[in-house]
Amino acid sequence: MRIFICELRKLWNWRVLLVIAAFGVITWFAFFTDILNDYESLKTHGMYSAYQTEMFKKYGETLEPEEWEDFDIKQQYAVVYAAGDDIIAEEPIFAKYGVESFSGFLEWYESGNYWVEVDGFIVLSGGELTPENQDRMDMLDALNCVSDGYTLDEWYNSPMVLLQSLRALEDRYTNQQLYLDIYTMNDTRPAVVRAAERLKASDNNSLLNGYLLGSFSLHAAVTGVFALISVMVLIIPMLIIDRSRNIHLLQYSSAVGRKLFRTQFFTTLISTIALSGLLTVLLFAPFIARSAEYWNAGVMSLGGDGMWMYDISYGQYVLILGGMIVAACTGAACLAFILARFSANIVTVMIKSVPVAAALATVLVLSTYRAFSNNNIVFNQVFAGESDMPEVIVCGLLCLSGLFAAAVVMQREKRVDV
């Protein structure tokens, strides 16, 4: 026990912890603040504007048929049309074309062949800005509340944007069975088809914020990379210092000394789980604090941000991604331990560690970003959409392969010739 405590103190060196802390501050301001701010913005500035967020606050985790009736989508449209009518009454340019109401503008706007698609881009028909097209753009600016010094809130609360948001919201909660039928009939990925069948049975009525899981999974991916690098920074110096000073030759002169390598590994393992778990909790906390109201909401849904395929809650989603990060960090720590064992000095081990860390971080990012959705890269490209939750499998394999490799090295160390 005394040897274990001594190795633990050597591992948790204040200089190394200071480096990790400095790296954490840089990472926070470089990545995490933007992710958090983007999520806060998307709560009211996304595809559904503020409607979905307001419905969650009013109706809870799911939208039942009677609650949809209570929301009264026709009345919501009427409010938007009234706001459009007010703008049209104040702007003389609309009268030039005989437009007296918002509904009249939409009819004129949507029936005119003003725009054409060329090579995937929407451009003015004829390729030139005619006076009529300029007037049309000015009218659009008015109905989008676009003026000098306008804000993002003003734009999202404009009649044109609110109209598109209401249309998307109505489509989300009234036409989903049609979209799910398309998945079940045409999608070649078995896991996606199974998820679509589950969604059809559940009515797909979750009021979870449509951008929550995408934003959180990105937050988790950055957290995972930071935790993985921090673990490797923590682990490598402990063993490489002994190796560079040839202290291990003295240790191997006795049976107790040969056991020290195993003690160092278990110290590494415990410290890795503790550090990666602590960093994950600390870095998840700010995001969870801003999304705690969704903790028990189901994530299984089909919306503008893709299909989220499994019947779990947001809280379970957070815990699973946290476990994936700890598992991947454990595998990375085992590989760092092995690299340090077979390196003569800090320069050598760093040369070896950088590409290994980059590869592991890439795998972790691809596994965690948009995990459990039909757009996850590991799910689509590696497992071809055939397996459920392959992202967890990948992180588990990283952990198990690292532990197995470390076990082989430890067994070899008992008989190594020095």
The helical percent reads over 70%
Low-confidence stretches: none
Strand segment count: 4
As a whole number of angstroms, the C-alpha radius of gyration is 28 Å
State the secondary-structure class. Answer: mainly alpha
> What characterizes the major β-sheet?
2 strands, antiparallel
How far apart the termini lie comes to 27 Å
Adjacency order of strands in the biggest sheet = 1-2
Count of alpha/pi helices: 18
How much of the sequence is in beta strands?
A: under 5%
**Rough outline:** elongated
State the order of secondary-structure elements, H for helix, E for strand. Answer: HHHHHHEEHHHHHHHHEEHHHH
- State the oligomer: single chain
What is the residue-averaged pLDDT? 86
Structural account:
By secondary structure, this protein is mainly alpha-helical. The protein starts with a helix and ends in a 5-residue tail after the last helix. The mean pLDDT is 86. Strands 1-2 form a two-stranded antiparallel ribbon. 35% of the residues are buried. It is 72% helix and 3% strand. Helix 5 runs antiparallel to helix 9, helix 10 packs antiparallel against helix 11 and helix 12 runs parallel beside helix 15.
What is the fold's blueprint, element by element?
Elements: H1 2-11, H2 14-45, H3 51-59, H4 65-71, H5 73-90, H6 102-111, E1 115-118, E2 121-124, H7 131-143, H8 152-156, H9 159-174, H10 176-186, H11 190-202, H12 212-244, H13 247-251, H14 255-291, E3 301-303, E4 306-308, H15 314-341, H16 346-368, H17 377-382, H18 390-413
Helix pairs in contact: 1-14, 2-12, 5-9, 10-11, 12-14, 12-15, 12-16, 14-15, 15-16, 15-18, 16-18
